[in-house]
Amino acid sequence: MTTPTETSSYLGKPLDGWRLKLFTIIFEADTRAGRLFDQCLIFAILVSVAVVAMGSVGAVADRVGIWFEVLEWVFTLLFTAEYVARLLCVRHPMRYALSFYGVIDLLALLPTYVALLVPEVSALIDVRVLRLLRVFRVFKLTAYVQEYQALARALAASRRKISVFLSAVLMIVLVMGTLMYVVEGPVNGFTSIPTSVYWAVTTMTTVGFGDITPKTDLGRFIASCMMLLGWGTLAVPTGIVTSEMASLRGAPAPATTRTCHECLTEGHLPEARYCLHCGAHLSPYFRDIP
Amino acid sequence: MTTPTETSSYLGKPLDGWRLKLFTIIFEADTRAGRLFDQCLIFAILVSVAVVAMGSVGAVADRVGIWFEVLEWVFTLLFTAEYVARLLCVRHPMRYALSFYGVIDLLALLPTYVALLVPEVSALIDVRVLRLLRVFRVFKLTAYVQEYQALARALAASRRKISVFLSAVLMIVLVMGTLMYVVEGPVNGFTSIPTSVYWAVTTMTTVGFGDITPKTDLGRFIASCMMLLGWGTLAVPTGIVTSEMASLRGAPAPATTRTCHECLTEGHLPEARYCLHCGAHLSPYFRDIP
Amino acid sequence: MTTPTETSSYLGKPLDGWRLKLFTIIFEADTRAGRLFDQCLIFAILVSVAVVAMGSVGAVADRVGIWFEVLEWVFTLLFTAEYVARLLCVRHPMRYALSFYGVIDLLALLPTYVALLVPEVSALIDVRVLRLLRVFRVFKLTAYVQEYQALARALAASRRKISVFLSAVLMIVLVMGTLMYVVEGPVNGFTSIPTSVYWAVTTMTTVGFGDITPKTDLGRFIASCMMLLGWGTLAVPTGIVTSEMASLRGAPAPATTRTCHECLTEGHLPEARYCLHCGAHLSPYFRDIP
Amino acid sequence: MTTPTETSSYLGKPLDGWRLKLFTIIFEADTRAGRLFDQCLIFAILVSVAVVAMGSVGAVADRVGIWFEVLEWVFTLLFTAEYVARLLCVRHPMRYALSFYGVIDLLALLPTYVALLVPEVSALIDVRVLRLLRVFRVFKLTAYVQEYQALARALAASRRKISVFLSAVLMIVLVMGTLMYVVEGPVNGFTSIPTSVYWAVTTMTTVGFGDITPKTDLGRFIASCMMLLGWGTLAVPTGIVTSEMASLRGAPAPATTRTCHECLTEGHLPEARYCLHCGAHLSPYFRDIP
């Protein structure tokens, strides 16, 4: 559809005319048109995900399966058109294609096309739900995102503690799984060390499916110790998150969805003239008076 | 029972005589009669709920089922009489009927009558238990409610964080459920995407029923990651609630159950002369010397 | 063994001679003899509990059951002798018999004797383990108890919040259980409302046994909502305990096990001359130089 | 391999020449060689653990089992050589052999040799994963360990609270298990008191395997109470850890892996001249300029 020669003529050139307009609508959400576009997009994603989920239910698929397939292709073509539009209106298409949202947008399209060759992957169309991460962009101007960023900062701040904690948990789980494999053995369902480790994770996280359970007295004793140990251990992430949240309270959130044409960084202030990330000159800012 | 003409003659008129008396008894709990009424009401609700619950046990129903049906109708008629009395003694019956407690009071009556036509709903009579929310009114003068309000404020304060968190959890659960549907497939019990999502919720919340469990090695590996991820994720609400509770400590609670005749707002101070919500003139305050 | 005439002659008289000595050994733990007595007692309780627990294992009972029965009677007679000694050496035997520890001491003896008539209760001998609460007395001089009291104070301080929380949880569980009973019905294992409520508790507390599970799509949807709701709700007690623990930090613990002869209150300071609870004159204090 | 006469001639003598060099490489991680050694060691441990785990999977073992056995012996001989090298280059071999890491290093070797006689223990080779604790040494210079020590300090600080809490939980679990054994009995799967206690632990920690579940109404009622009680009780460790973590924030971590030749204490400052633990004279410090 977009042949290299067509798009390459635009590459790297400053955005103006219809490309600037399209960019403002598709990438930003501060004008009325931009907000409307994002809301339609989110609605389309939700319906499309619901269609795929419903289509997997046997009874439903038998009755209206053909309509679902049609709907599904409609959505896929719509999203493909949107993806192409995004590529067209940014200054450096590759930079968008390799960005976080760019990869997700592509991943949301691929399964439908791949399913033509390998039918089994058709269910993966549901990764489309990841596109809903855009939902936070629409609400960016509201206070929701402030909370979202507090969460992200809290997790980033405890990144190291979490690594140490996870490696400790993995060691405990591996040793305990091996021990149970030796004690219970394949006869009681602990068929291999990986299976025993899976059981140990199930037990330590207090999920406890019950598909594999210790049968011997010694095994049950070890399992009891593991559960008590597990609770103590798993109080740690709660402690980490809680103490981080208590110390991280409400830094102000970016006020706009204004997006740099060069590096696609978001959240520039209305009065900003240069990108705070790459230093590129920012184009004039379009925003409806609220 | 209460024909429109009967009640409409009272509509909007200030309460006096027996209506004022009845209002003070039924809606407020600061006089001895008002407190006694509320206590009898709560006792009746508890017994009525117990009767419905017991009536669903096969062995009990066979022996004394007929008595339970009689008791059940006695309670329903009692509650109907109370509902009518409430409608009669308030100044704007519709305003009460559409208020939070008014809707619950009606919902507690309907199932018995509806069950005459559609027998299956008879168990729903147990929504009657929601009327027990009134229990907090009786204790309103005690310190219990202060704690209750602290909880409500804590939840209201973290409303936004909780929305962001819930939407993130729903996305994870949807993507993970779809992934497991592809990996495990209908053969291993993951019969459709909704079923797989149900399994994912079961796993992430560490409930782990075990009615559906992964059987393949890859599925078990993904499930193990989900459980560890789930614990980390679900430490967040605990962190939210804890940090909110730490910052919200003990604002004083309303001291009375005095209720505005116009808008049914509660908790006016004994010395108040006008409703703090709608500005209406309050009638003199009746209260037993404690 | 202790006829009324024998003991009544001592009743209410100040303790002296062997009764004072015995009182110091049995009730206090600040002298070497007192500490030794408590340690032997705890050892005896532990062994006795282990004997009862082991005796319930079929394979073990078949081989050495007769010895366990003998041991069990030896312990019961020992504990009976101790109970009588306690009654003998306190000033007001009834006050001891009705005190917290007095009731537990009696409860630990009764099952063996009652089991002579009603053999089924013999397993209840294990309530004997409650006597281990005395273990905290031995460590009273150490810092352990300070922590223990901090826990107790934290729980007492959040007593009201916990009541409100529990009543809210009970309402949710009752309404949800009823709803699932209507939706799933006896065919899918929800045989009665009490059973459905048991299932709802299982689900809300994230235990998730899996003996009863929803089978219909609607039931699974409601169950998913309940699990998410349950996690949110159950973050509250953690929040309560955590915020209480953060505000309650280390008040000094009682320094002795010195016990008032009148009202059996413990923890009087070495230099105290009158009971801080009932104002009775305290007898001189016996304590080994550590 | 290392005959007593060979090694004893070195015993207690100050380290110099190749022994000092070897000591710096094996025990410390501040030089390039030392860091490389530790990284290879960790890689070898990871591969070796993976080999043992994979070897337990039936399908894999059938195909490439012989190679795994060979690999396994290669790793064991490597680790044996390393263990001997460690013994050779420390001043007091016994002190190392009895230290924490010394015991783990030996435990990681033994199962392979013992498995020659008793084949069942071969799976225990996976205790080798405990050697990964050394991984924290490599990262000692990074900030990871600061977090790790904060965790360790938090756990050590709440040591006493945790003991009191654990003993309380054990008592509750024992009494509840006994009660359920009496109420449900062997017919419903509660075959003995230890089994019932195992079930009680399963329930209180919210794991809920579901291999044993109450069948009677009374049993289900008690189980429901236990679950609610369990949640309340298990909020305590979370509260303990959280409040400890909030009060313990970031004391600086030791900056080196410099190890005393006498007592094997780690973390001496670059400028230190005497061991801070045993007062021995420290040898000059080798460190690459970063």
From TrEMBL, chains A, B, C, D:
Its main location: membrane. The chain crosses the membrane at residues 40-60, 66-85, 97-118, 163-183, 221-240. Gene3D superfamilies: 1.10.287.70. Keywords: Ion channel, Ion transport, Membrane, Potassium, Potassium channel, Potassium transport, Transmembrane, Transmembrane helix, Transport. It is found in: Membrane. Residues 35-248 form the Ion transport domain. PANTHER family: POTASSIUM VOLTAGE-GATED CHANNEL PROTEIN SHAB (PTHR11537:SF254), VOLTAGE-GATED POTASSIUM CHANNEL (PTHR11537). This is Ion transporter. It comes from Rhodoferax potami.
